[in-house]
Write a structure and sequence with these properties.
Blueprint (H helix, E strand, L loop, with lengths): L4 E2 L4 E2 H28 L11 E6 L7 E5 L4 E5 L5 E5 L11 E2 L4 E3 L6 E2 L5 E3 L8 E2 L1 E4 L2 E5 L5 E3 L2 E3 L1
Antiparallel strand pairs: 1-2, 3-13, 4-5, 5-6, 6-11, 7-8, 8-9, 9-10, 12-13, 14-15
Bound molecules: FE2/S2 (inorganic) cluster.
The site of FE2/S2 (inorganic) cluster has 10 residues, from loops.
Length: 160
């Protein structure tokens, strides 16, 4: 079988294929390097939902208070005994944002009137389960919340 040549540059068909394969190999190598470099970048900027959020200093949350941390999509509930609970502001019925009603001392969903007590337990359906929670970390006098870990509660049990 005779080999076709390209007279202007004296390239054989085999040479052209080698160049094409080398080019495609280079492109694949660059794409792989790009994926690897982006993998090494931090996934989430600190302070964004899905990362660890610093809610504030411990002393900024008085006992028996509920504070909305909007960038974390959560509430910090400081209990009467000084403990902290972090509650996801997303309704467990259909996902509306649930505001805290200071007068009624409960969370009342504006969409279908589900109501939750200060710790997010269902007082009035249709919400099928309590509001979800996040782990709270107290570190160097600061209240931090791991919004990358959503803790689902089914009545009294916690489910990860
Ligand atoms: S979305 Fe909250 S009660 Fe339906």
């Amino acid at each position: 079988m005779s080999e076709t040549t390209f007279p202007e540059k004296n390239l054989s068909r085999r040479d052209v294929l080698k160049i094409a394969w080398a080019f495609l190999g280079g492109v694949a190598l660059l794409e792989t390097a790009g994926v690897f470099i982006s993998y090494l970048q931090p996934r989430l900027a600190e302070g964004e939902f899905g990362s660890i959020i610093t809610a504030g200093l411990v002393d900024e949350f008085p006992p028996n208070s509920v504070t909305h941390i909007t960038n974390g999509r959560l509430y910090i509930v400081r209990l009467g005994d000084g403990g902290f609970v972090s509650i996801y502001h997303r309704c467990t019925h259909l996902g509306c944002t649930v505001p805290w009603d200071q007068t009624a001392q409960k969370f009342i969903c504006p969409c279908h009137n589900s109501q939750f007590d200060q710790q997010g337990l269902v007082e009035n359906p249709p919400a099928p389960r309590p509001l979800d929670m996040f782990p709270v970390i107290i570190e160097n006098g600061e209240v931090k919340v791991d919004t990358g870990t959503i803790l689902q509660r089914n009545h009294t049990k916690l489910h990860r």
